[in-house]
């Protein structure tokens, strides 16, 4: 049975004190996770160690970093390696988020290198994929996402793929006022799973967790999560409000 995951991506928000309070409020929300359900918190780099200390004694709660660099080590001022993240107790690393692709021009080739480094250090990548508005309007979203998967993930073995989580982000529905329907989310998730099945086989595809990253919130989480191929969410803004994030987790 594949994992059901709600991951909160704080992005570049909150002070350390605010982040500590947010985690404590989430932990105090009385969330009862069943077997196979996980909550992941992705904090900014400076807060990882503190967040780990707060989460580590709570079963089902895991820590994520929001990115890592595409080289193992070296003279790359300001960057953070997968090995460094491993050393402070990180469990997951978000890779290829739409903001990283758009603002920092991360390529599929660079992301393939990041995936390799994350896996080599025993961490699990949350690999983001998804199409911008012009691609959706042209109705070529399937081809667009298939290329992202092929160029960043298809060099992996089936065994390596077991540690990968995919997050589908309909970029056109994030902060634009447009909304992706549960059916649109399900259609793309089913497409991604079919692509994985075509490359790695049906068993591998059925074991892969695919999260929805399109502005999930308490009001639509239950409908989204009830879709057969939607295994949870990568949550942005709603992850900064403990009550909202807890409500999304409870939507399982």
Automatic annotation (TrEMBL):
**Subcellular compartments:** Cytoplasm
- Could you tell me the EC number(s) of this protein? 5.3.1.1
Please name the SUPFAM superfamilies in this protein's record: Triosephosphate isomerase (TIM)
Q: What class of enzyme is it?
A: isomerase
The annotated pathway is: Carbohydrate biosynthesis; gluconeogenesis; Carbohydrate degradation; glycolysis; D-glyceraldehyde 3-phosphate from glycerone phosphate: step 1/1
Q: Which UniProt keywords apply?
A: Cytoplasm, Gluconeogenesis, Glycolysis, Isomerase
Checking InterPro entries in the record gives: Aldolase_TIM (IPR013785), TIM_sf (IPR035990), TrioseP_Isoase_bac/euk (IPR022896), Triosephosphate_isomerase (IPR000652), Triosephosphate_isomerase_AS (IPR020861)
- From the Swiss-Prot or TrEMBL record, what is one GO molecular function term? triose-phosphate isomerase activity
Which Gene3D superfamilies would you find in this protein's record? Aldolase class I (3.20.20.70)
Name the chain's protein. Triosephosphate isomerase
**What organism is recorded for this protein?**
Chitinophaga horti
Q: What is the lineage of its organism?
A: Bacteria, Pseudomonadati, Bacteroidota, Chitinophagia, Chitinophagales
Its encoding gene is what? tpiA
């Amino acid at each position: 049975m594949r994992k059901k995951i709600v991951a909160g991506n704080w992005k570049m928000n909150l002070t350390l004190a605010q982040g500590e309070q947010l985690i404590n409020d989430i932990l105090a929300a009385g969330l009862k996770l069943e077997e196979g359900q996980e909550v992941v918190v992705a904090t900014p780099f400076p807060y990882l160690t503190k967040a780990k200390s707060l989460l580590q004694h709570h079963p089902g709660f895991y820590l994520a970093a929001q990115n890592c660099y595409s080289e193992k080590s070296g003279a790359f001022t300001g960057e953070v390696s997968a090995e460094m993240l491993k050393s402070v107790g990180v469990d997951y690393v978000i890779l290829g988020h739409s903001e990283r692709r758009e603002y920092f021009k991360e390529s599929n080739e660079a992301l393939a290198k990041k995936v390799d480094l994350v896996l080599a250090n025993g961490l699990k990548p949350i690999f983001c994929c998804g199409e911008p508005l012009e691609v959706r309007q042209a109705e070529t979203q399937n081809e667009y996402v298939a290329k992202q998967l092929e160029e960043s993930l298809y060099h992996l073995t089936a065994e390596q793929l077991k540690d990968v989580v995919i997050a589908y982000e309909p970029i056109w529905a994030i902060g634009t006022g447009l909304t992706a329907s549960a059916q649109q989310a399900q259609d793309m998730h089913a497409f991604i799973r079919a692509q994985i099945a075509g490359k790695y086989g049906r068993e591998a595809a059925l074991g892969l967790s695919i999260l929805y990253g399109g502005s999930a919130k308490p009001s639509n989480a239950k409908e989204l999560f009830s879709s057969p191929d939607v295994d949870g969410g990568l949550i942005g803004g709603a992850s900064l409000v403990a009550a909202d994030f807890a409500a999304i987790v409870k939507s399982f």
